[in-house]
Specification:
The protein has 735 residues and is mainly beta. The chain has 8 helices and 46 strands. The protein starts with 5 loop residues before the first helix and ends in an 11-residue tail after the last strand.
Length: 735
């Protein structure tokens, strides 16, 4: 851990002025929330407000309103001038011309007062499909709103400027006037810019999960700054467009490109999705971006010149598809009292791993990384994608005398306890009253001193955390993929922060039925907004007793049993609902050579299409394990409708507790980390039994065959991998 002396710290603080007026006109007026992170600092803090701590989504207590979203939602809502905007998919089918069966990216607009639907922006899926536009994931970009204009990047990787009034004002604002439908329920496009067509960008969106699109910064004068998402090919092996820009500055009124930068070049590890922040530092406005090669860079807002850069990775770290020690970013830099805070991360599909939370001095220039890479003669060597230094060649990392690191947190010194480690994160930190709230993907929420990096204490959610924390006055909110919102008091003292008399639990932990939460809660005009998987809730404050928190402290064999109602949770990667195309389902069963005497088990059965197809087409007994009660109910209804309810058994049960001892065929469409954690479950299958995986390989396991199939449904190539039990393992992992 590193620290500046107090003289230098005070100097750095006084040198930095956030662009509050001239440089950033979108800082929240009153208590609106017009951009991701609330304002240009990206620090999700409302210093004053009435924080709700009790509500019930079942009875409707303290729920002002709720609205239906698509069946997959990852974007955080924004609120401005009486309207609420949120990205999702087309599951809600608000427009007649687009029934729910048509896959779209949608930006929905609702009235803030009562949730009344106003208009929808619709983006049809790209014909190229999953490479650039993963099915069902919808629109994940949170827009920037200023007055009657808003900007966001669609699932088609088109930068869009909209009139917030839609066509209700009786005008078709231009220069873009070619909208196919121009009625009051449709969006009014002012201008648009195709990043793929115009700039040659090859976007790589994260798949089957937090499919974060290109992100947008707070504006500076007439300029906006957009991360293009330029990344790797589908298997993360190469960068198809290394010279395409990663960051673009646009004229926000016209869509004209003012400058571009392609600094990550051929070193992008995977995707690029972090939001930029804009700040005035030492009289110079900086655009600070956490980029896909693992470097944080600061650019001059007017010219695009690089001011400073910081490598989040140790120089000896190695990039791999699985168990990589080299990381990049999905979280966003935050500015607090003149310092920049950011933590490293990877896509959810790459699973858990070590992370690094840093505090950086942004007043420096040049390379301010902790280390420098040099050859055996001590000469600087160019950065490399897979590994920056190779000791076998005599290369090494040396301390950087120009380092801008103020402090870092990777673990509690002397402890390897899970809760004392900083893991990879998808989240952005929140900072208030000198305390940093830093969740990681593994479910640990850390509390640290903003000045020194001292870790005070942590909380274990026992669930993945995909969203970012919210602080309202002295109250902290953290949502997880179990559908719980944990509420804490803001304090460095664990006993103060937690529930009185229940030291290890939050002051409240409120469930959203069976819906996962992959978004970040926000707060505007004394209303809390929580976007669950398929519904958006507006929550108000009332004088109500605090909700008794669930107990997740009884641990048995790595599985946590709730002592009050026997709800089971586990510290395992959650699987996002992403249905396999029907023709690929049939191919999977064909590859497995399913016969009437087999029992087919689908882990994470979703809408039941695999087990229903197995029963209907092959006459086999089929069992589906699915934790989402809505999907269980709908798949049971589909099995009844298909006339195979006697053969199909849909069980609402955690797939990690599934019994595969009688299964002759197991089908999966799961992240590699989930497949890795299922290995003990697979091992209980009889010799000769088969596993068929869609897209993802079982880490280090040798596949009997890998078949590439072009789906007539999606138009994409899909990989079908076959394994026979017992699994045999190799050193290398199929990507």
């Amino acid at each position: 851990m590193y620290s500046l002396n107090w003289r230098k710290a005070i100097k750095a603080y006084l040198a930095v002025v956030v662009v509050l007026h001239q440089a950033c006109s979108i800082l929240a007026a009153d208590t609106d929330w017009p951009v991701f992170g609330r304002d240009a600092t990206r620090n999700a803090v409302v210093p004053e407000g009435i924080a709700p701590t009790a509500w019930d989504v079942t009875t409707g207590r303290n729920i002002k309103w709720k609205v239906k979203l698509g069946y997959e939602t990852y974007a955080a809502p924004v609120i401005s001038d009486g309207q609420v905007y949120i990205g999702t998919n087309n599951g809600a089918a608000y427009l007649e011309r687009y029934p729910a069966t048509i896959d779209l990216g949608c930006l929905l607009c609702f009235r803030e007062s009562d949730g009344q639907f106003i208009w929808q922006y619709s983006a049809e899926k790209l014909p190229i499909g999953r490479v650039h536009d993963w099915p069902d994931q919808g629109l994940v970009s949170s827009p920037l709103v200023e007055g009657e204009r808003m900007w966001f990047v669609s699932n088609r990787h088109v930068l869009i400027c909209l009139d917030t009034q839609g066509f209700r004002d009786g005008e078709n604002d231009g220069p873009w006037v070619d909208e196919p439908v121009k009625d009051s329920r449709e969006a009014d496009v002012v201008w648009q810019f195709d990043l793929i067509k115009e700039l040659g960008v090859f976007p790589h969106p994260p798949g089957m999960g937090a499919n974060t699109r290109c992100s947008i910064a707070a504006s500076y004068g007439n300029r906006i700054y957009v991360v293009t998402g330029n990344g790797t090919d589908e298997i993360k092996a190469r960068i198809p467009a290394p010279d395409a820009p990663s960051l673009v500055c646009f004229d926000k009124n016209t869509g004209k490109v003012l400058w571009t930068d392609a600094s990550p070049g051929a070193n992008v590890l995977d995707c690029q999705a972090s939001h930029p922040l804009v700040a005035e530092i030492d009289g110079r406005v900086q655009v600070i971006v956490a980029q896909g090669d693992g470097w944080v860079r600061s650019f001059d807002a007017l010219t695009g010149e690089v001011i400073w850069k910081f490598d989040i990775n140790r120089k000896d770290s190695v990039w791999r598809l699985f168990k990589s020690t080299r990381t990049h970013f999905l979280g966003t830099p935050v500015l607090y009292k003149g310092r920049v805070y950011i933590a490293s991360g990877c896509q959810a599909e790459q699973g858990e791993g070590p992370g690094r939370l840093v505090c950086i001095d942004p007043t420096k220039t040049g390379d301010i990384s902790t280390e420098l890479a040099v050859d055996k003669n001590g000469k600087s060597i160019p950065h490399r994608r897979i590994q920056a230094v190779d000791s076998k060649k005599g290369e090494k990392a040396i301390a950087n005398p120009n380092a801008g690191l103020i402090w870092e947190f990777t673990k509690i010194e002397g402890s390897d306890a899970f809760e004392d480690l900083m893991h990879r994160t998808l989240s952005t930190v929140a900072i208030h009253d000198g305390l940093v709230i830093a969740p990681d993907y593994s479910g640990i929420v850390h509390r640290l001193d903003a000045d020194t990096g001292k870790r005070y204490w942590s909380y274990d959610a026992f669930a993945d955390i995909w969203g970012s924390p919210l602080i309202i006055d002295k109250t902290v909110y953290v949502a997880d993929t179990d559908g719980d919102v944990a509420i804490f008091r803001l304090s460095s003292d664990r006993k103060v922060a937690m529930n009185v008399g229940v030291e290890d639990r939050p002051i409240a932990e409120i469930q959203f039925l069976d819906q996962s939460i992959s978004s970040s809660p926000v707060f505007a005009n004394n209303v809390l907004y929580v976007a669950a998987r398929s519904e958006l809730y507006a929550i108000t404050t009332a004088k109500s007793p605090e909700v008794k928190p669930l107990s997740k402290s009884k641990i048995s064999g790595g599985v946590l049993e709730n002592s009050e109602n026997d709800v089971v949770a586990s510290r395992v990667v959650k699987s996002i609902y992403a249905p396999t195309p029907q023709d690929i389902v049939e191919k999977m069963l064909e590859v497995a050579q399913v016969t009437k005497n087999d029992t087919v088990v689908d882990l994470g059965s979703g809408d039941g299409r695999i087990v229903i197809t197995a029963a209907k087409k092959h006459g086999v007994r089929a069992i589906g394990y699915e934790i989402d009660s809505e999907l269980v109910a709908s798949s049971q209804a589909r099995a009844e409708q298909a006339g195979v309810s006697g053969l199909v058994d849909i069980r609402r049960q955690d797939m990690y507790t599934a019994d595969l001892s009688q299964a002759r065929v197991a089908t999966v469409f799961l992240y590699p980390d989930a497949l890795n954690k299922l290995k003990p479950t697979f091992a209980k299958m009889e010799p000769g039994a088969k596993i068929v995986s869609h897209h993802y390989a079982i880490p280090n396991a040798k596949a009997d065959s890998v078949v590439i199939v072009t789906s007539t449904v999606t138009g994409n190539d899909h990989r079908v991998l076959l394994y026979t039990l017992p699994l045999s393992y190799a050193v290398e992992t199929v990507p």
